[in-house]
Write a structure and sequence with these properties.
The protein is built from 3 helices and 8 strands, in the order H-H-H-E-E-E-E-E-E-E-E. The chain is of the alpha+beta class. The chain has 2 domains: about 50 residues, no CATH class; about 90 residues, Beta Barrel (Lipocalin).
Length: about 150
């Protein structure tokens, strides 16, 4: 999709440059528009790679009002997250839904426990704080395992 946008911005001149990459004067002439497209594309690709990197299984621990471990499975669509979390104490597997944007993550369980999590993501690790029923809580952290 990004290639289509770059081709759309440069119309026929980009197609000529792309097919005759050995022509130095054409590349020099297109420097301004060609430099803009990769600069715009690189952050979008990095953001997409980071966002897509949350899908999979994460293993973590939590402390505070409740203490234990959890396994979290994410399915991601854009910035939206969903799937399940399996808690060790209280022992339960719950549906979760959340969002991730610019390294910030927030998600919560669906069910009587009403646990909400917020924090940050960096590479294959994430951490933050949680609340149960809107009041008591503590901290949590997790690492991606697959």
């Amino acid at each position: 999709m990004l290639v289509v946008v770059a081709a759309g911005c440069g119309s026929t001149n980009n197609a000529t440059t792309a097919t005759s990459t050995s022509t130095a004067p054409a590349a020099a002439t297109q420097t301004t528009s060609a430099a803009s497209a990769p600069t715009t594309s690189a952050p979008a690709s990095t953001t997409a790679a980071t966002a897509a990197g949350l899908s999979g299984t994460w293993s973590g621990q939590y402390g505070g009002a409740y203490q234990g471990t959890f396994n979290l499975t994410w399915r991601q669509s854009g910035t939206n997250l969903s799937d399940t979390i399996k808690l060790s104490a209280p022992a339960d597997t719950l549906s979760i839904h959340g969002t991730m944007s610019s390294g910030a993550i927030s998600f919560g369980t669906v069910g009587s426990l009403a646990i909400t999590y917020s924090g940050s993501v960096s590479g294959n690790s994430m951490s933050g704080g949680y609340k149960v029923g809107g009041s008591t809580g503590g901290s949590w952290s997790a690492n991606k395992i697959s």
